[in-house]
Write a structure and sequence with these properties.
The complex is a heterodimer of chains A (533) and B (304). Chain A has eleven helices and 20 strands. Chain A is an alpha+beta fold and 533 residues long. In chain A, strands 3, 4, 5, 7 and 18 form a five-stranded antiparallel β-sheet that branches. In chain A, a hairpin with a 6-residue loop joins β10 and β11. In chain A, α2 runs antiparallel to α3, α3 packs across α5 and α6 runs parallel beside α8. The termini of chain A are far apart. Chain B has 304 residues and is an alpha/beta fold. Chain B is 32% helix and 31% strand. Chain B is built from nine helices and 14 strands. Chain B has a six-stranded mixed β-sheet, sandwiched between helices. A four-stranded antiparallel β-sheet of chain B has the order 2-1-4-5, covered by helices on one side. In chain B, α3 runs antiparallel to α4 and α4 runs parallel beside α5. Classes of the chains: A alpha+beta (533), B alpha/beta (304). Chains A and B meet through α1 of A and β6 and α2 of B.
């Protein structure tokens, strides 16, 4: 009998419990996914425990892989099989077959079932599903197998898992220490780290099966981990690049302009908390976005210069208040954190302030109007969407394998088919037609970066919510979407990165200090001096 | 001389500990070679290097003209290895164990398997984990003998077994010995003396001697003689005389290179007139004890 089949058959007999656990975890995962779609948008107690179900799947994979690999332990000098006519390639093939047959193929089947259940014909998505499988093999299946190959038993396997957890915790700690730049792109670094991880794992597995050199194999893993750590730590410095966001040449047409808002904020009456960093809130106004285009702020930076050679510069930081920049005027307030000592020293000194704004410009294209249906409705190039039953300003969508690269959804207030509340209805009846003519547009925006065949993960159905909001003069407005409301879906295309800067002289930091606040039990609480214990 | 097993200056170090110190060993085809020595002598290490379980630090070992580091997969279809501390798949039943191993060996003899199972009274439906140590050893040996290996390597196979089981295993081994070369390690000289054809004595990682059993037995004699007058032992005794002692007029020593004519001549030359000269053959145990004591004594002298 073929050696692969012989070992495979033996492994099924030996690891039937782990195999059953894997399949049970998969069934639970599928049930949870389908159940989760039904619950989407609502909040019930049953949503608290699906996390355990999702965790059960990788745990069951870990257990099966570790037990199967350690069934013919590659560590130690007492195993009976090492002096039997095992051929290492066949042994490795038998283990691979077991993993493919009881992890990958059932998962592929479950993913096809989920796609069908979500209303997508699965076969066209097979390449994407295989891509998902490949990503899952790279992480976590391959690292699990590599760790299993250098450990003797479950206890050692758990210890190695603990080492991985500590390693990841170390990476996260490093992440908080190393200065990040919001302008940096970590895509290349992620790929490089993945390549290092996969190479280290493959080398480890090969070394163990072909040579059984546990010491050297462990060294490979350690070197791989160190390599990932170095890449991870070095990325913010190496990837920091302003070249992707050039300032326009003198005389050339600028894709957009930025200025300090002429509306000066009201100075806060509450002094800053001594323990906290002080937040400076700069109101920014942008304009000049061309018709048919839109933009998103990538990062902002603040530089301060004083007469006494004082100089301070923030790092490039992500913008949280800017929203979508559209043709016409856009205004928002950007906050920068400043060390308390610096603020105290310079708060009343007139400073020269420079604000840099880096944006990504998109050209709006491929717009199509779709009427929100009662229940689910198809949106080409997206998937299937429905109006959130609990929140009429939101639509929930499901996309097969991956979210669209970019997506802009618009709704006009004037075309909303939602009935007005009773009191508003009576008011509306009394209002004249001129008042009714007040219109605003609400938007929802999705940008997922580079297009991939599929997202990393186990679920082939990407669920996401689109909240449509906008401004009506100074008022913040929510969309009102009901069955019959026309929605415009478009797929903007990235055009360029650009940067604008403006300088303001004689600015006093105290005038732009933001009132600190904290959330206590979900309610924003203003911190008043003397009240903090 | 071509041997099934040949080692040349085989060295194995575990960090600073040198477990094998330039081992030169030859196991001729068809031999039942007993590798003996005290605990910690390096027997298991030597066997593990031979079986490519451990990699030598330097030197080399060859099995059937193949470098031991190249032994893998198919090489083991003709080699049978059983060790006292081998980890067997304890979750398997005895029958399942045999069934699993069968396809690995083209030369697996189903009839012989059945015969061995019967002879060893193996409980086929019991899991290996539920077998006694002796039964487990029998199962391991049966799983090796069933495919007619050309080389059988046994590392302390009888350690801790009761004499009955030991004799059963030896008997089965001897039945197969005609078609195989056997290398067996043991620290118990008595258990291998009855059937080994060759013997090698390993101590502190070095082979003190290696010989055919008959030659070895011929080479060693306990010598006793009575002098006409009491006297002390003269200095510069022949190197082959070990553990020489005297009590009044009686002189005793062990001749490790016995040749009746030559030994007689040397005794006459050194002691002159003497009487009651006896040459007594020695058991393997006595030979090794004498060798070990002599070695220890010479080391102490060197240390002093």
């Amino acid at each position: 009998m073929n050696q692969i089949a012989n070992i495979f058959k033996k492994d099924i007999r030996h690891h039937w419990a782990e195999i059953v656990l894997c399949q049970a975890a998969l069934v639970a995962f599928v049930w949870n996914e389908v159940h989760g779609w039904k619950l989407q948008g609502s909040h019930t107690l049953s949503q608290n425990w699906p996390a355990a179900i999702v965790a059960l799947l990788p745990v069951s994979w870990w257990l099966l892989i570790v037990r199967a690999v350690q069934g013919e332990s590659l560590v130690g000098d007492r195993q009976f099989w090492t002096t039997r006519p095992y051929e290492w390639k066949k042994l490795l093939a038998a283990k691979t077959l077991l993993i493919l047959l009881f992890i990958n193929i059932p998962l592929l089947g479950a993913q096809m079932f989920l796609l069908a259940k979500a209303g997508f014909v699965p076969t066209p998505y097979l390449p994407g599903l295989l891509w998902m499988q490949l990503l899952l093999i790279n992480l976590p299946l391959l690292p699990i197998a590599a760790l299993a190959s250098v450990t003797r038993n479950i206890a050692q396997g758990l210890l190695s898992l603990l080492a991985v957890v500590l390693f990841v915790a170390g990476m996260l700690a490093l992440d908080s220490i190393v200065s990040q730049s919001a302008l940096s792109s970590t895509d290349d670094s992620d790929w490089l780290q993945s390549a290092v991880l996969v190479t280290a794992c493959i080398m480890t597995i090969w070394l163990q099966y072909a040579r059984r050199k546990a010491g050297r194999a462990r060294m490979f893993l350690a070197v791989g981990a160190a390599g990932m750590l170095i890449i991870f730590a070095a990325t913010p410095y190496l990837a920091h690049s302003e070249s992707g966001y050039p300032l326009p040449f003198a005389g050339s047409h600028a894709p957009f302009r930025a200025i300090l808002s002429p509306v000066k904020p009201e100075p806060p009456k509450i002094p800053p908390d001594k323990d906290e960093e002080v937040e400076i809130a700069i109101p920014i106004v942008t304009s000049g976005i061309a018709d048919g285009s839109l933009a998103k702020v990538k990062a902002v930076r603040l530089s301060l210069e004083g007469a006494d050679s004082f100089r301070w510069e923030s790092k490039w930081q992500s913008s949280y208040g800017s929203g979508l920049l559209l043709p016409g005027m856009n205004s928002w307030i950007e906050s920068f954190k400043l060390d308390h000592k610096i603020f105290d020293r310079m708060k009343f000194v007139p400073l020269k302030v420079r604000v840099s704004v880096a944006i990504n410009v998109f050209r709006d294209q491929d717009a199509m109007q779709i009427t929100a249906g009662r229940g689910e409705f198809d949106v080409p190039r997206v998937g299937r969407c429905r109006v959130d039953a609990k929140n009429s300003s939101s639509i929930e969508c499901q996309a097969p394998l991956v979210k669209p690269e970019t997506l802009l959804v618009r709704a006009e207030s004037a075309t909303s088919t939602c009935p007005l509340p009773d009191e508003e209805q009576s008011d509306a009846d009394e209002e004249d037609s001129a008042a009714k003519a007040t219109k605003w547009t609400t938007y929802a925006w999705e940008w997922n970066g580079d297009q991939r065949p599929a997202e990393y993960g186990v679920s082939p159905v990407e669920s996401f919510s689109l909240y449509l909001t906008g401004r009506n003069d100074d008022r913040f407005e929510r969309a009102q979407i009901c069955p019959g409301t026309p929605l415009t879906f478009s797929f903007p295309k990235f055009v360029q990165g650009s940067r604008a800067e403006f300088e303001v002289s004689e600015l006093k930091l105290e005038d732009y200090r933001k009132v600190p606040f904290r959330f206590t039990f979900g309610v924003p609480t203003i911190i008043k001096k003397g009240r903090k214990k | 001389m071509s041997g099934v097993i040949q080692t040349e200056n085989l060295v194995k170090k575990f960090r600073r500990v040198e477990a094998l110190k330039g081992l030169n060993l030859q196991v001729p085809q068809g031999a039942i070679f007993a590798l003996v020595g005290p605990n910690g002598a390096g027997k298991t290490t030597a066997i593990k290097v031979l079986m490519n379980i451990l990699e030598p630090t330097s030197g080399r070992a060859r099995i059937f003209e193949t470098d031991s580091t190249q032994l893998e997969g198919r090489s083991f279809a003709t080699i049978g290895y059983v060790s006292e501390n081998q980890e067997l798949p304890l979750w398997m039943r005895v029958s399942g164990f045999m069934e699993y191993l069968r396809p690995f060996y083209p030369s697996w003899d189903r009839d012989l398997e059945n015969e061995l199972a019967k002879k060893f009274e193996l409980p086929l439906d019991r899991k290996l984990r539920h077998l006694s140590r002796g039964m487990r050893m029998k199962a391991a040996l049966a799983s090796v003998l069933a495919y007619h290996p050309k080389l059988i390597v046994l590392d302390e196979p009888f350690s801790g077994l009761d004499p009955l089981v030991r004799d059963e295993l030896i008997e089965s081994l001897l039945e197969r010995a005609e078609e195989a070369t056997v290398l067996i390690s043991s620290h118990d000289l008595g258990e291998i003396e009855s059937f080994a054809s060759h013997v090698g004595y390993l101590e502190e990682g070095a082979l003190l001697f290696s010989d055919e059993m008959t030659t070895l037995a011929d080479r060693f004699r306990e010598v006793e003689l009575t002098l006409n007058a009491p006297g002390s032992l003269p200095e510069n005794l022949p190197e082959s005389w070990v553990q020489a002692s005297t009590s009044a007029t009686v002189v005793r020593f062990i001749e490790s290179s016995f040749d009746e004519e030559r030994t007689n001549a040397e005794i006459g030359k050194i002691f002159g007139e003497h009487r009651n000269l006896t040459f007594t053959p020695m058991s393997l145990r006595s030979i090794f004890l004498a060798t070990a004591k002599t070695r220890r004594g010479s080391k102490e002298k060197q240390g002093a």
